[in-house]
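Handout for the seminar on molecular recognition.
Each group receives one record of this type.
Step one: identify the two inputs.
Step two: read the structure output and locate the region that could contact pyridoxal-5'-phosphate.
Step three: write two sentences on what you found, then compare them with the reference statements printed after the record.
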Amino acid sequence: MTQFPSSHGELMLGGVRLSILAARAGQTPFYAYSRSALRQRIIELRQTLPTKIKLHYAMKANPMPALVGLMAHLVDGMDVASAGEMKVALDAGMAPHDISFAGPGKRDTELRQAVAAGVLVNIESFREVDVLAQASQALGLPARAAVRVNPDFELKSSGMKMGGGGKPFGVDVEQVPTLLANMGRAGLQFEGFHIYPGSQSLSAPAIGEALEHAYALAVRLAAHAPGTVRLLNLGGGLGVPYFPGDKPLDLTRVADTLERLVQRAHADLPQASLALELGRYLVAEAGIYVARVIDRKQSRGQVYLVVDGGLHHNLAATGNFGQVLRKNYPVAIGTRMDATPSQVTSVVGPSCTPLDVLADRMLLPEAQVGDLVVVFQSGAYGASASPHLFLAHPACLELLV
Ligand SMILES: *Cc1c(COP(=O)(O)O)cnc(C)c1O
């Protein structure tokens, strides 16, 4: 399940051998993200999806400033989830016009910052309408706003449900016509809709169905809008394979659905751009997490490799970031790529908790102290989504290679 080649028995990333990357980092553990893999993913998407579909990057998947700087040249828009992320996007050179701000708890100061920056706010409550109107008046600047709709359906077979039923995200579709009227009265600059039904789906039919529903919902709501729909952000939810048996998403089927929607939009929403907002699909597979073996132990017949990294840097890979059943991410001994997997091995982190497991009884080549363990699929929800302070271990480094 790895796209990275190996040479002389070592994994290569960005044309550099793993041991050399470690020397360049000057420490383990570290994350390494491949520029070429990041570029390649976007090229594939552009080749497969209708050209009219805009690609947005949801920065919370990986907010490393250098990576965001690269993405700023590759995508059409960026979605930020806080004023802190908004700063990273602006610093990276993303045009304010192409930045949108979503999140269930936007503070007054953050909304004001968005108006000052000229960033589009995805409105998620009635309160946000009032705060934006006040900020707009105080600053003498337009408040660009779209409505984040909490839809009355959800993305089936998705890892994390973000819509349907009672949710803190967005405004219930039933309440949206009233909200739109308030936005009109408040003089906000209406730009469109944002509908995000879920995340981490590997099922093209399920994604297709959610996209169709989201589109139909937006067309229905557009009749109540205080202005022209210029942007319809359809979310995304495109997943990546993490576990044995996971099949990569069939992107061509998603493309077929989007092609139909683009055609229908000519008539229904002639001024609107259709956008997908993707996080992990753009970055997860381009990143690895690397930790060094600091001890090798046997306990009652079970082999343990104790490494210097773990849940404090890569919570998701240890199964503690929302997974229901713990399963192993793909893991390799990156300094023994030519060796035959011969030993059932558990790779554990240095933290004093049984939750700190990077690989649970996996068949791996025999490894020794000093070897480098690689966790693949680590480019999303890694460094920034982990409890770095837990147990006061050293911080990890991130490299863009
Ligand atoms: C988290 C999030 C995303 C990205 O989700 P992925 O599963 O990483 O693609 C997109 N949009 C919004 C509003 C989000 O909150």
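Reference statements: The chain has ten helices and 22 strands. The first helix runs from residue 18 to 25.
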